Amino acid sequence: MTSRRPRPSRGNPVRTRVLAVALAGALAPLALAVPAAHAAPAAAPYDFNGDGRADLAIGAPDATVGGRSKAGAVSVVYGSPTGLRTATRTLITQNTAGVPGTAEAGDAFGSAVASADLDKDGYADLLIGAPGEDVDGDTNGGTVVVVWGGRSGLSGSRTIVDYGKQETDRYGQALAVGDVDGDGDLDVVVGSTGTAALSFVSGPVTRTGSFQGGSGAGFPAPYSPSYGVTSVSAGRVSPAWSTSLVVHGRQPRTGAAVTHLVTDPSIGNFTDWWQELPAGTVSAIGDIDEDGYADIAVGNPAEPSADPAGAKGGRVTVVYGGPGGEDTSRAPLVLTQDTPGVPGAAETGDAFGGGVFLGDVDGDGFQDLAVGAPGEDSGAGSVTLLRGTAHGLTTKGAVSYTQNTAGVPGAAEKGDRFGARVLLADHSGDHRAELTVAGPGENAADGAVWSLRGASTGPTTAGALSFGPSATGVSTAGTPRFGSVLGT
């Protein structure tokens, strides 16, 4: 890889403390049966059974497992020619055979998920974070496991090494995958609290054998180590770097959001060269205008009283990508529900931008943007879809969906939080992304997920699917908040 140095950050540069690991890790792997050789190329993320369709991982970190409150669970619903089918599913907990550990109260298994074909066998693998896991006497030390994909779906697992145990807590509260060091192997990116809030586990990650080393980065001011890295997105913003990261955290005392673009994480001292982005709590990376540079949508659902970077009702800022990361020749696009063309009106508490995702719903080659507003109408929630074009994102033809939209199952009720998580992925293999929406407050916080099929005109409510935790084997004891996490 040809390494280029990104442009300096705004303001004074800061230093990263790197925890270099010279020796391979020594975690003992589980004894797993390795499937027969699979000649297919590396699978796309979340294609766990190698059929060419994206599958859906649904996190319920508050789920009760074996009578243990908030132990956490992840349901995987597989794609099919007709979209998601709850009849073909896998439930994963720490009580699942082959998964390390035991389901315990407060483990929060499923707080974060990520996917990639880590062992390059033609089946995507699933990474799951359990930041509440107690490790070797360290309360909330946290852990991450990888569950392996295969012809029949997901099975077998091993723990991802934590090289910085003394420097981290809540290991696994954020997850991503990318070729961070540009060597052609996929690396695991783990967010945590503590003085080394971002950890890298070098690839390849395989079913057996030693890990390949890694490093950790401490994020100095304005990041608070108490919050750590709360969310991280990975993508190829510019062809100059194999993987770039969008990192989210919070400031000490105020809790205000902080967001940066790390254009080339292979530069060990990368915070000397990070780029400040509009502050937010979530992000999505994708090439909206098909110019060869990925763009970044940053969601900030906060009110200005809680976060100076927030807006009444919440906001989303789209930063266009270029050769050096952010394309400074193009003004960022700021979206609220008061933006002309965006349905609705900005009202206090709407939380517009609480969920964001980029995907191609109509198959035209341009990435479209789904935005959740889970606070809309006293927490009933809504989702807005905006279309991508050769000129960038447009508000022309923007559409909003609620549970009161004709064809969407259910009814909008206070506290449903429809739109808390949104996702655009092709579960049917027709090259059009379905719109998946989570409402973790549905049915007194049982939670539910909706899926609307993609079409040339955008998501259609005809044949819309909705299901709750019971449909995928998750207990409704307590408040599982099914759909608190979506991954694809």
From TrEMBL:
Q: Name one Pfam family in it.
A: FG-GAP
GO BP field: cell adhesion
Q: Which UniProt keywords apply?
A: Glycoprotein, Hydrolase, Repeat, Signal
Instruction: Please give one Gene Ontology molecular function term for this protein.
Output: hydrolase activity
Query: InterPro entries attached here?
Result: FG-GAP (IPR013517), Int_alpha_beta-p (IPR013519), Integrin_alpha (IPR000413), Integrin_alpha_N (IPR028994), TAT_signal (IPR006311)
- Which domain of life does the UniProt lineage start with? Bacteria
From the UniProt annotation, give the residues forming the signal peptide: 1-39
User: According to its record, what are the GO cellular component terms?
Assistant: integrin complex
Please identify the protein, giving its name as recorded.
Answer: VCBS repeat-containing protein
What is the species of this protein? Streptomyces argyrophylli
